[in-house]
Amino acid sequence: MTITKGKICSASILVIAVLLAFIVVLSSQLFVFIHSPNISKVTVSNHTVDNSYNNKVLNPTASLIQKNNKLYYKYQQYNYLTCGVYEISPIGSQRILCPSCSNLLYPTADDFFEYNNQIILQPPYGGVDSLYTINNFLCIKEKYCDLQSIDGNIIYEVDAYRDHLYCFSGESVYIYDNGTIKKVADLPQNIIDGMDEIIRSHRYYFTDDTLYFILPNKEVYEIYALNLYGNKSTKLYLTEILSDRYIDRLAIEDQYAIVGSDLIYSSSPNGGYQIHRIELDDVNSTELLTDSGYAFNCYNGNLYIYGYSTNNGLGIMDIKEKSERIICNDYIITSVFILDNKWIYFLDENHHLFRTNYNGNIIEKIFSTP
After folding, report:
1. Is the dihedral of CA 215, 240, 61, 346 positive or negative?
2. Max Cα separation, the chain?
3. Res. 18: pLDDT tops 60
4. How far does CA 22 lie from the centroid of its chain?
């Protein structure tokens, strides 16, 4: 049997390629381990609650989800060696996705959400042709699916609500299901006209059968309710929120719309940030819950809020009764997450992750830099 030089060369190239791949994988894992902030260990509660949508839309600059016994956290710091997406488990933490190399001076960690039991990276607004997930072993982005244009119109926004993945394209809303896309509703013209600001500030909110929008109409804001699976009719709710305020958060909790707004030119969120409650019924009244809040979340009829109204602490307010109790006031809080019925997770001004029980007598630091 004759072994030619060509065969030896091909075999050598194959061996070198395998070795290089092994080195790349080993280097990435070693880099992730060396540059992980404090190797935190955490045991999470098994009694999770379905609040992933509120956790996403009410924390526009942060991401935190729980999958099985692990937490996945977006750690945003202007330091390439520590910024990124982290997996936090009972045995420790590791960075599973580094920030983009496009700007080493100001690296940005990816936002993400959960869909179909996968971590999906939030695509940028404006033109979505693919969705990506994370390869935990290689610590790289990995394509999850392609999203083709619809009738010649690009998909400019995607949003996951429970087990549905909705797509905005052209003048309609579609639903993605295992490679197929189906139209569920056409958008009214006044919503289409203001779509850029609506999407950019997430001034919309999905429920099981309705898509809500909030947009200004002359002097005040109005809330539109678009029926997704019925006759596509819309219903209008007037508010008393002046149109010169900047809406940055909208949630639907029971029969109420919860709206967060700030002074358009305010330099400090606590200087004029307001949270209103709008009844979505025939009464259609608007009530101010607080005029000195900032970070907040909603779950099961309660408002989890941080701000001056809670003495610079974290409090729980019954949305219907407007009764409130303070849990803790030792931190400047920027985001609040409800993942289970045992803990309230929150971020401080340095993007460190904490959790407290509902009585506030136990506070644990989950994740921080060295």
Report:
1. negative
2. 91
3. no
4. 34
State the Cα–Cα distance between residues 286 and 304, nearest whole angstrom.
Answer: 19
Report pLDDT digits (tens) over 264-323: 765 554 457 899 999 998 777 899 888 877 889 999 999 999 876 556 789 999 999 988
Q: Tokens standing for 311?
A: 């003495």
Determine the residue type at 341.
Answer: N
Q: Are 220 and 243 in contact (CB under 8 A)?
A: yes
Q: Tell whether the torsion through CA atoms of 226, 227, 232 and 237 is positive or negative.
A: negative
Q: Which residues touch 368 (CB under 8 Å, ≥6 apart)? A: 37, 38, 40, 350, 352, 353
pLDDT at 28 over 50: no
Note the pTM of the prediction, 2 decimals: 0.87
CA 330 to chain centre: 25
CB 316 within 8 A of CB 303: yes
Residue with tokens 């630091």: 365
Q: Which amino acid is at 232?
A: K
Q: Do 50 and 61 form a contact (C-beta atoms < 8 A)?
A: no
Q: How far is Cα 337 from Cα 218, in angstroms, rounded to an integer? A: 34
3-state secondary structure the chain: CCCCHHHHHHHHHHHHHHHHHHHHHHHHHHHHHHCCCCCCCCCCCCCECCCHHHHHHCCCCCCEEEECCEEEEEECCCCCCCCEEEEEECCEEEEEECCCCCCCCCCCCCCEEEECCEEEECCCCCCECEEEEEECCCCEEEEEEECCCECCECEEEEEEECCEEEEEECCEEEEEECCEEEEEEECCHHHHHCHHHHHHCCCEEECCCEEEEEEEECCEEEEEEEECCCCCCEEEEEEEEECCEEEEEEEEECCEEEEEEEECCCCCHHHHCEEEEEECCCCCCEEEEECCEEEEEEECCEEEEEEHHHCCEEEEEECCCCCEEEEECCCCEEEEECCECCEEEEEECCCCEEEEECCCCCEEEEECCC
Length of the chain: 370
